[in-house]
Amino acid sequence: MSRYPNFGFEVRHRAPDSRARLGRLTTPHGTIETPNFIFCGTKAAIKGATTEQMRAAGTDIILANTFHLMIQPGAERVAKLGGLHRMMNWSGPMLTDSGGFQIFSMGHGGVADEIKGRNRAERPKSLVKISEEGAEFRSYLNGEKLFLSPEESIRLQRLLGADLIVQLDECTPYHVGADYIADSMAMSMRWGDRCLEEFDRGADGSQALYGVVQGGTDPTLRRESAEYTADRDFFATAVGGTLGGNKAQMYEVVGMCSPYLHPDRPVHLLGIGNFQDVFEGVALGMDTFDCVHPTRVARHGWALKKGAPGERVNLRNARFGEDSGPIDETCGCEACQHYSAGYLHHLVRVGELLGVMLVTLHNVFTMNRLMREVRAAIAADRLADARTEWIVD
Amino acid sequence: MSRYPNFGFEVRHRAPDSRARLGRLTTPHGTIETPNFIFCGTKAAIKGATTEQMRAAGTDIILANTFHLMIQPGAERVAKLGGLHRMMNWSGPMLTDSGGFQIFSMGHGGVADEIKGRNRAERPKSLVKISEEGAEFRSYLNGEKLFLSPEESIRLQRLLGADLIVQLDECTPYHVGADYIADSMAMSMRWGDRCLEEFDRGADGSQALYGVVQGGTDPTLRRESAEYTADRDFFATAVGGTLGGNKAQMYEVVGMCSPYLHPDRPVHLLGIGNFQDVFEGVALGMDTFDCVHPTRVARHGWALKKGAPGERVNLRNARFGEDSGPIDETCGCEACQHYSAGYLHHLVRVGELLGVMLVTLHNVFTMNRLMREVRAAIAADRLADARTEWIVD
Lengths: 393, 393
Prior knowledge:
Two copies of one chain form a homodimer. Chain A is α/β, with parallel strands linked by helices. Chain A has 16 helices and 16 strands. Chain A has two domains: 284 residues, Queuine tRNA-ribosyltransferase-like (TIM Barrel, Alpha-Beta Barrel); 90 residues, no CATH class. In chain A, the strands form four sheets. The first copy, chain A, has an eight-stranded parallel sheet with strand order 6-5-4-14-13-12-11-10. About 1% of the residues of chain A have low confidence.
């Protein structure tokens, strides 16, 4: 019998000229069309939007971070409050990560910067002790010593109750040696097996497990890691770890994995997701994406915009001061339907919460619109055309 | 012909045992039932809620502050963006104040504290020069020298475009001598006349003017000021200025005004509005209230609650940590319908914007519910019963 009786993934159409594909991912909380974008509700909250607003802005799926929630309010407490779905008032599909990414980034300086290869400064003394058993680290809240093993990660994610959960892996940084990456990848594989065993011990059909591809920027290791995930009975695959030092290398690394991933399983690209990343990732066979980018830049007054240079506009810019039109005339979001760019400029300038809220809704809507248009483009075999509409190179 | 052809106020029922009354206040943007509460959108934004959410939470009327808007983004710019209603996407009635309150409070230390008599420390050197002509002050944004006269206040409020606007008055602090208060009150009367003249110069039927009662805590001055407002052709009356050093004195001061206010005009009590204030004010003949209290305390994790000691609960309190029930079982707001107190506790503790947003919606809904229940109680001649339901003395 399948480990994942209540889950499914169906590929409905494939692009003729790339690995892009249309899919349908089914979970106990509903089915989503892919490619799709998973919005980050790190601490069990989307920053600046209610789940009702997320839904109204076209959102199909959200995630929360195990690392943050194990510290506050604790996975047991989330379970007592009914699990993530009930607690957050979200009835659709949901994912949690393993907690590893944030822990290992504590040991390697900045989180995203390091993974994306941008931080070349010397790293501070590690706050994390990694062993075969798992990772020991201290709570950022109160210094308490905590331990995350593959089994503990699965146990915590079971308490949190998301549909889609992720194996614990060591997320290796960009600036470590080849030996470290190879050894780490091998350990992540063993951790993957331990996660599958722990998963089976508590499985009730409500969750499905992702295996994670590591291997740094080395094609041989990436292939080996991808083949490992395909060989084991994971429901789906996530591509993680160091994705290179720049965009080109990132896409190259994803491309190293693609041919060796299990062809019938959904593939998630971890922590990546501006417009360009989505187009490149989709063409490389990625089905879902997640990134804090859309909500984070909203808090700084940046509105994502189809066809804009750099993919966005800065609402603080004086040119918007007396602009009585919307941010984007072609956008159907609440902010563009009801509010002028001039008003949003004012709100952002004076630091009103409402500015964050409205720009967040716009950015969420825009990402969902991007994914809708990407899906329509794949269906019509015109993904390249959609790319030129969205991205000014 | 009436100065206010598109406005009206109709008293529909009077309490048998107090000055409480049910009314209907008509503006070009609709009619509201009174008593009612006016929510503060200081800088042309309700802190933490969209106007759609305000409407869904039962809100009938909002205000914005001329002082803040003349500094950012400027009244001319608001006019270019279509005026406050269009800019804020608010189709209902709206009020702006004169700008005086904030300016004069710059000259007297803290704003609300001083007006409410709570600040007995020595005051810093005044930042405001007050003369018969008006008030000269410096922008908190860039130090620019600004001048607000009665004529300028009306001109700015005309540009902002609210339905209900307020004459410029000097808002005297609690700790000044009797002579100062008397002289100031007389000047505020002359400013009231100048506001009426300026109002007429630009009147197009879209706005209506409030006269303001001053006079500190002196019964003779309060009577004189109230009689002045009744004598002039203001559409409505606002009770402002120093309302005493404690709650009892505040109600006493309001009571000094009540008998001498024009009986057929709506009366607004400026800047006051917790549950108790509303019950006391209504009994003294006040028809509308405004206060930043409901949205401000939400930002600090306080949820207003019918029948709670102190009128509110502190969601940071550990007792809410695993509370899977709503803040208030009897409340129909979005937060209470869909989210547990335990989740809100988590959001407030970790500082999520969503916590502010949801508690704000709850507090707004609760104030609107208070006003609905106050109106129903007046209609049924049982205001005292409603008071005991809402307030634990």
